[in-house]
Amino acid sequence: MSGLGSWAARRLLLGGAQTVAVVVLVFALTEALPGDAAVALAGDQPDPARIAAIREALDLDRPAYERLADWATGLLHADFGHSLTSGRPVSSYISDAFGPTLLLAGLTVALLVPVGVGLGVLAARYEGRFVDRLISSVTLGVYAVPEFAFGVLLVTVFALRLDWLPPTAVGYGTDLLGHPAALVLPVLVLLSRPVCSLSRLVRAGMIDALASPYVAHARRYGIPGARVRYAHALPNAMAPAAQQLARTVDWLLCGVIVVEALFVIPGLGTVLMNAVAERDVPVVQGLAVVFGVITVVLNLGADLVAHRFAPRAEVAA
Amino acid sequence: GSSDNDSGSDAGSANDGKPRRGGRLRAAFAGGGASETLDPHLANLFADVARAKALFDKLADYGDDLSAQPRLASGWEPNAGLDRWNVTLRKADFHDGKPVTAEDVLFSYRRIADPEKAFRAKASLEPIDLKASRAVDERTVEFVLKRPTAEFPNVLAAFGAYIVPDATSDADFDKKPVGSGPFRFVSFAPGRSAVFRRNEAYWDGAPHLDELEFVVANEESARVNALLGGQVEYAHELNPTTARAHEGKGQIEIVRLRNSAMQAFAMKTDRPPFDDKRVREAFFLIADRQELIDGALSGAGVVGNDLFGKGYEYYADGLPQREQDLDRARSLLKKAGAEKLKVTLDTSAVAAGFTEAAGIFRDQAAKAGVTVEVKMGSKDSYWADILDSGTLCCYRSGAMPIESHISQRLLTDSTTNATKWHHKDFDALYHQAQSTKDEKDRAAVFDRMQRRLYAEGGFLVWGFADWIIGTARTVKGVERTAPANSLDWARFDKVWLA
Amino acid sequence: MSELTPVAEIEELTVEVGGRRIVDEVSLRVLPGRVTALVGASGSGKTTTGRALLGEFPSDARVTGSVRVDEALVGYVPQHPAAVLNPARRVGALLYDIARGQVRELPRRARRAAAREHVLNALEMAQLHDGSRLLRRFPHQLSGGQQQRVVLAQALLLGARVVVADEPTTGQDALTKRRVVDELAAVAARGIGVVLLSHDLETVRALADEVLVMRDGRVVESGPTERVWLAPSHPWTRELLAEQPTLTGDAPATSDSYTVLRVRGLRARHRDVEVLHTPELALRSGECLAVLGRSGSGKTTLARCMAGLHRTYVGEVLLDGVALPRSLRDRARGQLAAVQYVFQDARASFDERRPVLDQVARTAVRLRGVPPRDARAEAAEVLNNLGLAGELAARSAARLSGGELQRAALARALLARPRVLVCDEITSGLDTVTRRGILDLLAGLLRNRDGLSLVLITHDLDTARLASRIAVLDAGQVVEQGSAEDILTAPAHPFTVSLTEKHSLQGRSLGKH
Amino acid sequence: MRRREKWLPSGRFALGAALVCVPLVLALFGPLFAGEPGPRATSFTLGGGHWLGTDFVGRDVWWQVLFGGRPVVVVALAATTLAYLVALPVGLISALTHRTWLEEVLMRPLDVLLAVPSLLMILLVASVFSPGAAGLALLVALVNIPDAARIVRAAAADVASRPAVEALRMQGESWWRIAVGHVGRSILRPLAADAGVRLTGVLYLVATAAFLGIGVAPDAADWAVMVDRNRTGLFVQPWAVVVPALLIVTLTMGCNLLFDALLSAGRDVTPERVVVRRGVDVRDRTKEPRP
Ligand SMILES: Nc1ncnc2c1ncn2[C@@H]1O[C@H](COP(=O)(O)OP(=O)(O)OP(=O)(O)O)[C@@H](O)[C@H]1O
Ligand SMILES: Nc1ncnc2c1ncn2[C@@H]1O[C@H](COP(=O)(O)OP(=O)(O)OP(=O)(O)O)[C@@H](O)[C@H]1O
Ligand SMILES: [Mg+2]
Ligand SMILES: [Mg+2]
Ligand code: NI
């Protein structure tokens, strides 16, 4: 496995460069946005003198590259800098918001993989039949309804009409684990769309894989149906689905703004939204580092999966 | 102004029964995320103000008609020149037991006016010469002003002019803020919640509630759902549609605070095409105000008459209501040589109803032959963007005294003069009003100024939006007539749970 | 014989596809402990009949007749083993899955060890001696012959009462073949009914108790092996069994011939393992070089290095003294056309969906700039010469038999008018008659088209006789090379000796009546 | 055999076609029947001559529905197509190349795009440019490219290393024919699945972008924008959300079902089917192709 090892090592190195690129790009994007922290702070009282004063107080009158360089040197000492708006350390923003995000993402993925893959396999197994059509229609239907509307619908039915679950996580703060019931609906909403995209990709791959001679051979030899589907066919159907899964996890970890807002869960998405709105550049940059690292790692993981499930690729002339 | 401090609770809530002591009220507000702070001088959002109000007091605050009502100040007395005011403090204590003194007042005001910082209230305190002002005794402050200011009490009631104890450091506010307000600090998690407890020793009578918790929920539907699901008892800032869906259904109470938010289009009067007052008048006549209210505010509001401050002290309500008159608008435009006029209307999703109003007005203008192109701008820098550039934009304003509106927006040296209304004679009228001691005479001057604005001003004020609040049915004592930003809005010391 | 009840039976089976009967009223009884062989020309319906025992038919086939199989599972070694090996799973996993079924009765804890025991045992039986090393590999990391034996090992592991073996000895060298035959005999001895589909008469004769001779889907003759061999009644059988005229590479390496292709200092690696070391190998123009060697010795790797399909090597491959780029992507059209390779696994090298004719014709279009219409005509002609008449060639690859595809692959390479044609086991799936035809054709080309040189990779000594020179590979090393005469009659290296030993397969003594 | 290859699983095909037809016909011909917009009424009301009620600015929902299909169909289709026009070559090149550096050069920068929150991306474009519908399609495509390229690459990697591709190279086949004609065709199913789902995602991205000021007006007649902007009135006047949402649901569901049906019809290499279940005696069993 030395080849794979060095490949992964190179990718991680490149990942470092990518993260730097992400940070620079995000910095440039935030800088290019009209207005800065001073303007955002001034809000509907855009008194020019006041804006200038804020700008000076926040050191915003210095050139952009200098601020970026300062921040980067701080980063070398694991110092993410301080928020422009509140002066609190950026690391506290990230650590506070990461818990809920991680919890939501973890739960969602833990359910998404079995459900998405299971539905995809089931649909492929009964391709063109009622079960397939049912799964396709329901997942596509749910997919085509925007998250927001779906969330509102679930809240109305399960929280307000039936009173089974709390409608939001308001007031629970970061202690979401203490209120598992509050997590049910957000996780359902988060699941709604990825389940569809994942199961459709799995289904597509599975139909081809199930029709392959090696699956026929496994069946022939009396290997139990479930094993044939999950151990023999699925690995061959997994490569695109793994990419999709990586994207989903990425999306979940980088903040799910709608769900966080709808259910009042203070996660990374909310922090990012606010930071961008406030032009709180250090916070945005800190988040960019986190997101960059997450994306690099996930992409590497997805590529490893693709590599593992398409082992022939390495011998191409 | 009058000073009936003890009658606050039964003003708009006649059938609420006898107040009951105890309980915890959770109130959901849209908030500022992880950057929130309890520093009252940094208060910017409604949530900040509501929290500040629970912990702190101002010397004065706005009544329902936006006139200044004494709070920590028990009274004020100007000199003859109206440029020196003696303010006496009532007997009140901070949460740590120390009394509120003149030194605390001066410390607070000096902190706000610190040139190094950029606190929001700094501009409001500008008339005061803080160097010259002094503590006459323990409970009397003498404010020396830079010029005669008849409406000086408005300054004391200014947004964010809270009194904090002398020598409070910046760091104290988030850890253990000490104020003189009706509630004491318990805990605070920025962007999530703040928990406060009753201040038994409150000078205005201890609150009925044992505890008050502010929770942050930025999404309106989340606030509504939390309210409907019994997770909170008070939800601030609801949509008109939500209000319609739940009003009178018995599940929750809907409170509409009238005349809370002026809705307008601002025309820049210093540049074409709006430097011609006939064009401005034509635009006044193009607007179908009821259609705007129905469409953009879902009916939750009242039509405006191109003047700020409907229902407030000094409002010129004698003027005839302007109606849509497309023929006259067309002929005015023709006279001004502005047929086939094309203008860009800046808007943004920065406030409820903005984009909607822009779209509706575009269609109305089309009927008068004016092509309005709607341009969406960034919502984070909208206010700064529209201040100097563009010609026509959507505008709104929260409640403030008419005098403040004029001084902040309509004088040559106003800092946020979005209509570029620069008229020396108009400035002179304002200073005349500020130097007029007699209230009737002053009202007459304000009336003259408003007539001028009505005829040819830059603000096309088409409506006043209701401020909508939802409460659980158990919540009693919520004031129903106080516009947002006034004293009785978001005030929890007079509220109780039945 | 009458006391035995058949473990599987086919009665009057007819399989019709698109109005053509590819199997026509075939009846067959598989008896326990007996080997029933189906022989016949390529495309005569052997595979189709064999698969009927598995209950599988070509899609949209019209099937009449009956198939009865006693037991649930039937072992199957398909003609193209690569296709049934899951590319994403390791060999070990593929075998364990089947072994698991065998150890179900054991207590849970003992299962793993027992399964491993079974697997290693089966690999040994299938002549994969370094089995435990192969378990960690993916199927594509095996040589063609190794893949075949893994599939055989699966069939042996299964413990079924019927095993259908479709060309189980193609692509195996003489030594391995002998052992595989022994193993199949041992399988039969354990009371398992074996159905052997093969073109390899030697194997059939050594193994089979009963032979069915097929032609165009029909059984033209059947009976005990010895009888059919000694007294064939049908003329077609006689033709099929006729002694092979010894083709000799008469192409003289004349003095004016020059070296076309030279391999110099070649050391090829798969990952970090060196599998081939060829210090020097030359191919002269007009000559036919046979590369002999045991399965897994690196023959295919050598061929792929020449063809530009294997890049991880040091040393060089020179065409007319000019080094060829390692990867065929970097080769110019002329170079591509000059060196053509016929894949060992013909099925995998075709696009299943497109008509074979179209695929074959593209060579002429791309490499020789022939207009598409002419290219098709030319392709059709070449295919016809190889025994694939019009209608067959117009089908998609999925609808051709193994031997037919092998010929199509040859046609595809020939259309480039190559100067060096590297054929990797191209006759392995062909019956004697067809093979003779093909070899004749190749010999003719050698003779008439000057400039064509052949590299024949084969395990088959008879085929190797076509060559003028032979190189012998063992474990990646060229152990001997020289003229065909010398090598075949007087081998020097002990390994070559063992390969060329008169490979008389022992007829089974048991069970013959 | 020929007949069989042309044969479509007609039931599913018909269902898919029917589902696609409703929104498509509305989108294409709706504007012809819409006529002049009536006067506005209060937002989110029912009745008063508006048989689907009024929307968030008091316009007639039915009129909006009639007018709102075209941009949805056009912009979303254009953006999806555009995304694939780039993602397909990029994914295929990196799957087919044996030069690692080329793959890294193509894919790593796209990874960087993936890590930038798309919200920020859209915000920026919204504030720096003011693109019209075409710019919007471009932007939405841009946001979708990295993702799609990765899926294409992952799906193609295995196919690209099969002997069939080697054989094509051996024939000197052009890159395009190998990539599109063979590899692309082999991964059609995952691609279709991804594209079908992506189309829906794109629809709502367009709506979000509209609200941020890109492309169509924030109050445009556009089904996705309608769903997005009318959601506040969900409980007062559900039709303004439900009708356009249903149309989008039918559109995407129909598209996907149609894809599915076409793909299973186009598959002429159906696996050789197992007819006889073993262990049983199957005498005189006749199997015929289904009509
Ligand atoms: N991709 C690979 N990775 C690792 N090892 C490989 C790979 N491909 C082949 N091998 C090993 O390299 C050796 C040579 O393989 P090659 O295919 O050249 O054999 P061969 O002589 O063609 O055998 P056969 O006659 O069975 O086809 C074998 O031992 C095989 O297991
Ligand atoms: N799926 C299919 N559809 C249509 N025709 C087929 C199909 N499979 C095989 N055939 C045809 O049926 C005939 C018999 O095929 P089969 O594979 O049984 O031959 P075979 O005897 O095994 O030949 P070989 O020795 O070449 O493998 C061939 O002519 C082949 O072209
Ligand atoms: Mg065959
Ligand atoms: Mg080989
Ligand atoms: Ni390794």
From TrEMBL, chain A:
Membrane spanning stretches: 12-30, 102-122, 134-160, 172-191, 251-277, 283-302
Primary site of residence: membrane
InterPro entries (alphabetical): MetI-like (IPR000515), MetI-like_sf (IPR035906)
UniProt keyword list: Cell membrane, Membrane, Transmembrane, Transmembrane helix, Transport
Origin superkingdom: Bacteria
Membrane protein topology class: Multi-pass membrane protein
Gene3D superfamilies xref list: MetI-like
Family annotation (CDD domains): TM_PBP2
Subcellular localization: Cell membrane
Domain annotation ABC transmembrane type-1: ranges: 98-306
Family: Belongs to the binding-protein-dependent transport system permease family.
Full protein name: Peptide/nickel transport system permease protein
From TrEMBL, chain C:
Organism per entry: Streptomyces umbrinus
Pfam families the UniProt entry points to: ABC_tran
Domain ABC transporter: 8-241, 261-500
Classification via PANTHER family: D,D-DIPEPTIDE TRANSPORT ATP-BINDING PROTEIN DDPF-RELATED (PTHR43776:SF7), TRANSPORT ATP-BINDING PROTEIN (PTHR43776)
Matches recorded under SUPFAM superfamilies: P-loop containing nucleoside triphosphate hydrolases
Keyword entries, A-Z: ATP-binding, Nucleotide-binding, Transport
Record-linked Gene3D superfamilies: P-loop containing nucleotide triphosphate hydrolases (3.40.50.300)
Molecular-function annotations in GO: ATP binding
Keyword Nucleus: no
Family (UniProt): Belongs to the ABC transporter superfamily.
Protein name: Peptide/nickel transport system ATP-binding protein
InterPro entries per record: AAA+_ATPase (IPR003593), ABC_transp_ATP-bind (IPR050319), ABC_transporter-like_ATP-bd (IPR003439), ABC_transporter-like_CS (IPR017871), P-loop_NTPase (IPR027417)
UniProtKB/TrEMBL annotation, chain D:
Family stated for the protein in its record: Belongs to the binding-protein-dependent transport system permease family.
Gene3D superfamilies: MetI-like (1.10.3720.10)
Signal peptide: none
Membrane topology: Multi-pass membrane protein
Ranges annotated as spanning the membrane: 72-97, 195-216, 236-259
Compartmental location: Cell membrane
Assigned keywords, A-Z: Cell membrane, Membrane, Transmembrane, Transmembrane helix, Transport
Pfam families: BPD_transp_1 (PF00528)
Protein name, UniProt field: Peptide/nickel transport system permease protein
InterPro entries the UniProt entry points to: BP-dependent_transpt_permease, MetI-like, MetI-like_sf
UniProt organism field: Streptomyces umbrinus
ABC transmembrane type-1 domain boundaries: 69-259
Keyword Cell membrane: yes
Highest classification ranks of the organism: Bacteria, Bacillati, Actinomycetota, Actinomycetes, Kitasatosporales
